[in-house]
TrEMBL record:
Composed of two chains; the small (or glutamine) chain promotes the hydrolysis of glutamine to ammonia, which is used by the large (or ammonia) chain to synthesize carbamoyl phosphate. Tetramer of heterodimers (alpha,beta)4. It comes from Thermaurantimonas aggregans. GO terms for molecular function: ATP binding; carbamoyl-phosphate synthase (glutamine-hydrolyzing) activity; glutaminase activity. This is Carbamoyl phosphate synthase small chain. The keyword Nucleotide-binding applies. Gene3D superfamilies: 3.40.50.880, Carbamoyl-phosphate synthase small subunit, N-terminal domain (3.50.30.20). Pathway: Pyrimidine metabolism; UMP biosynthesis via de novo pathway; (S)-dihydroorotate from bicarbonate: step 1/3; Amino-acid biosynthesis; L-arginine biosynthesis; carbamoyl phosphate from bicarbonate: step 1/1. Keywords: Amino-acid biosynthesis, Arginine biosynthesis, ATP-binding, Glutamine amidotransferase, Ligase, Nucleotide-binding, Pyrimidine biosynthesis. Residues 1-180 are annotated as: CPSase.
Length: 369
């Protein structure tokens, strides 16, 4: 135990390991896939990122809540994680610009948060034994029962979750008089992606996941965007079909994270579930054409298999993750299509990779002329 306070909550892993803590928000029980994020800042953006839907978030950073919440800095309209596990949870944030305490935010969105957990040991456990499911509960009277429940949580592999976080109707973002128009498929799109496009003179029409190809392709636009999102990309064959048809239209296409994975799947590439994924704001990536490194924001548990890239050079490996050499970016040789596994919009994280939005806009410009 790292706290002398009596435990009032626990995380029970499917392998039977138990970590104790105390409840800091609402009482109850929640479950999902355990993952950890190593970012030192940016908890609000992380907790509201729709790509985390279905996951229990362990924050490796020790202090959570110390700068409160500012609603307009959310990446979506609600908290998207299934539950929070942290070490120190601060009840009183100190930042003039905050508009509420993180605790209030968790209460408002009815999301369970527990603190006082030995998160260093828990992160090492996930790192050593891989991602696994767990239950978080504020009732710790029957740990055996919680373990059974943890074992029955559905595996993330094979789960389609985008439909839970996509918009219900199409909407527009940005300036209608902007120079460029882009149709975006919302698989769980982060706000900052829309801001990054709008800031570059792009007007975006955002479509729900279940949009037909005919409808998606009917808006007169200069290019297409496929967003980030939760779940297993291999569980979305209909979306891969739509993406393939869109790519065949010949207009510029850009994809981020889940969008990147589905662009890969649409061309016959394969994806796999990683041991414990990449989630943080200092992941090193190399741009293979410039030889330059970039420090990136990442959040993914699946990746494109490098061995599945075609040997004829029709799809180029533009970026690699420097820690494990996994595929971090691809580009089509003969089409204006490219995608990255990481988050150039950051939020949170460094801005090193914003140039990718500029490259997309350059393709839109070339296409228009
Ligand atoms: N941020 C994302 O788009 C995540 C993509 C996918 N759900 C994964 O975990 O790999």
């Amino acid at each position: 135990m790292i706290s002398s306070v009596k435990p009032t909550a626990a995380v029970v892993l499917e392998d039977g390991t138990v970590f104790f803590g105390r409840s800091v928000g609402i009482e109850g029980e929640t479950s999902g896939e355990l993952c950890f994020n190593t970012g030192m800042t940016g908890y609000q953006e992380i907790f509201t990122d729709p790509s985390y839907y279905g996951q229990l978030m362990v924050m490796a950073s020790v202090h959570i809540g110390n700068y409160g919440v500012r609603e307009e800095e959310s990446e979506s309209d609600s908290l998207k994680i299934n539950g929070l596990i942290c070490r120190n949870f601060t009840n009183r944030g100190s930042r003039p610009a905050m508009d509420q305490e993180l605790k209030e935010f968790f209460k408002k969105h009815k999301t369970i948060a527990i603190a006082g957990v030995d998160t260093r040991a828990l992160v090492q456990h996930i790192r050593d034994f891989g991602a696994q499911n767990a239950v978080v509960s504020t009732d710790i009277s029957n740990l055996e029962e919680l373990k059974k429940k943890a074992m029955s949580v559905p595996s993330m592999a094979g789960l389609e979750l985008s439909s839970k976080v996509t918009c219900s109707d199409p909407y527009y973002y940005g300036n209608p008089a902007a120079t460029y128009k882009v149709a975006a498929l919302d698989m769980g799109i982060k706000q900052n992606i829309l801001r990054c496009l709008a800031e570059r003179d792009v007007y975006v029409k955002v479509y729900p996941l279940n949009t037909s190809f005919e409808e998606f392709a009917s808006w007169p636009c200069d290019g297409y965007f496929f967003s980030n999102g939760p779940g297993d990309p291999a569980a979305m064959p209909h979306t891969a079909e739509l993406v393939k048809k869109v790519i065949d239209l010949g207009k510029p296409v850009f994809g981020i994270c889940l969008g990147h994975q589905i662009i890969g799947l649409s061309q016959g590439l394969e994806t796999f579930k990683m041991h414990h994924g990449h989630r943080g704001i200092n992941h090193p990536v190399i741009n293979n054409s410039t030889g330059k490194g970039e420090i990136t924001s990442q959040n993914h548990g699946f990746a494109v298999k490098s061995q599945s890239l075609p040997t004829d050079g029709s799809i180029l490996l533009t970026h690699n993750h420097l820690n494990d050499n996994t595929v971090a970016g691809i580009k089509f040789k003969d089409k204006p299509v490219f995608s990255v596994q990481y988050h150039p919009e950051s939020a949170p994280g460094p801005h090193d990779s914003r140039y990718l939005f500029d490259e997309f806009v350059n393709l839109l410009k070339q296409y228009k002329s």
